[in-house]
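Handoff note, outgoing to incoming analyst
You'll be picking up this chain. Sequence as last confirmed:
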Amino acid sequence: MADRDGLGELPLFDTEVRPVREFVAQEQRQEDDYQYITRMYSALARQILDLIEDICDQMEYEGSRMFDEYMDRTMLLTMVDKIYDKIDHQEKQDCQKKEQLLYQMILSLLGGEIYHRRCRYRRKRNMFKA
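Most recent structure output, in case you need it:
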């Protein structure tokens, strides 16, 4: 408590810590919401998402091409190919790889995961800028 200009005992607030706490709480709510939504995916989509998370974890570092302003499409398709090759599913034999719904599903889920990580990366980066 402090006496400021005759106003009596007023509490002091740490104005620097409060926004950080609010940011952390908001970040946690967003992550919880994302996790809640992904738990509703089908078993196959969950299996694919686990593989996607593994490959994205390996690429999540400062300077990664995953965080480039304009991400390389070739890199994205290479990631999809790696994930596709790890999945054992009967649809794989029916038609050409890039026309299969499974391949398109992997591409869509990967795009969503990368978007999620890029947004999180930008938010954290902006918070800690000097």
